[in-house]
Amino acid sequence: MNHMKNRVNPPSPLLRKALQLIQANLLEAARHTLSQMVGNTTPHGPAEDVLSDMFAAALSKRLTDEASAGINLYLKQYEHAQIDLFNLAAQHLPFVGQPGIVANSYLAQFIAGQEEVTLLEIGIGTGRQVLDLLQLLEQRNALPRSLTIFAIEPMADVLEAAKGTIANACKRLGVELSFHAIPRFIEQLSTEEMKALTTYNGRLCVNAAFSLHHIHGSRADILRSIHALNPSVIVLCEPNSDHYEPDLVKRFENAWAHFGAVFAFIDQLQLSHAETVSLKMFFYREIEDIIGNQEASRYERHEPVGTWVNRLQAAGFRTHTSREALRDITAHALITPNLYEHYVGFDYQAETLVAVICAVPR
Questions:
Q1: Contact 294, 97 (CB under 8 A)
Q2: Among 20, 24, 77, 289, who pairs with 300 as Cys (CB 3.0-4.6 Å)?
Q3: Helix then strand then coil, % of the chain, to nearest 5
Q4: What is the mean pLDDT of the chain?
């Protein structure tokens, strides 16, 4: 569980009352309470006011869309695809962008010296991290002769865009590319399709950046299936908070602590109004999913870093850490990357917001 409750003030009595009413199934009373809160602030207001408004809007989704109308006014004004907002977050928030640098540094350690390499990219997105990896390998004079990519990404248009940009980069670098697009979630792959991934060329490296917390079903089974592919390394980037928790009140508290710290951090940056709003809207969509959606339809199911470490170990991996992985990190006044026993943590006010876990088969 995340222990950052002392980083922001507790939720207001009105918000707690609404939460308790929902738990008691007194939905009309909860609806009335929430209607008094939503839309009372703006997305560039103080972090805790924005947080309170967004949590109220997210809770209201469990009851009706009407109560969240206030927040939707500025949500529509800054409407962007979530993947675009993620890339904006990676640009401005070191705990979003820099974990990819550490992950690539780990991957590069296992790719260096290999003529043929296969990447299993779980949640490749627009391919931004793969492009950065290719640039890093070029800088280290460690590019492979050929690269095979199995790219898992449920958004077909995003997947197609990633294929094009990576193909252009490989052509420029003289790397022979074989790109296999898989427009689905990894848990949707059949046993036969997972086994087909064993037909890779050269060393297999697995990268899962901010993606495994989306898995519905058994995450342990997925990691065991990946272990059966005999990869040289698997690297995970994951937020460090318990939003897998089924109890709404506990999950609410965890989310309040985690996103409260995130919003407080954003408010300390010298960003434009539009950038501040866009970043908070990116996280609002996560908040809305975490506490606004019913259990069966929730998508953002983050877990504590220790849970991921234990699950990897149970699947047949052991963690691998290296201070070398931090060498390309640019210092930031507010975020500190720390090398722990099993992972690299990107820490804000002594608490890990995001972790990078590197593991190899035992």
A1: no
A2: 289
A3: 50, 15, 30
A4: 89
What is the largest distance, in Å, between two alpha-carbon atoms of the chain? 65
Angle 292-296-298 from CA coordinates, rounded to 5° = 45
205-216: per-residue pLDDT in tens?
999 999 999 998
Same domain flag for 326 and 181: yes
Q: What is the pLDDT of residues 48-58, one digit of tens each?
A: 788 888 899 89
Q: For tokens 């193909």, what's the residue? A: 167
- Report how far apart, in Å, the C-alpha atoms of 188 and of each of 183, 184, 217, 325 are: 10, 6, 10, 32
Domain enclosing residue 53, as ranges = 5-77+249-272+281-295
Pair (235, 257) in one structural domain: no
Q: Is 150 helix (H, G, I), strand (E, B) or coil?
A: strand
> Residues near 74 by Cβ (< 8 Å), separated by ≥ 6?
42, 43, 277, 281
Q: Amino acid identity of 354?
A: V
217: CATH: 3.40.50.150
> Distance between CA atoms of 243 and 251, rounded to whole angstroms?
6
Rounded CA gap, 222 and 83, in Å? 24
CB 335 within 8 A of CB 244: no
CA distance 119 to 150: 6
Q: Mean pLDDT: which of 1-10, 311-320, 326-335 is highest? A: 311-320
Reduced 3-state DSSP string for 315-331: CCEEECCCHHHHCCCCC
Q: How far apart are CA 358 and CA 69, in angstroms?
A: 43
pLDDT value at residue 275:
86
Q: Which of 57-66, 90-99, 159-168, 283-292 comes out lowest in average pLDDT?
A: 57-66
Q: Tell me the two tokens of residue 37.
A: 């809160």
Considering the entire predicted model, what is its pTM?
A: 0.90
Residues 131 and 170 in one domain: yes
Angle, helices 47-60 vs 69-77, to 10°: value is: 110
| pLDDT at residue 356 greater than cutoff 50 | yes
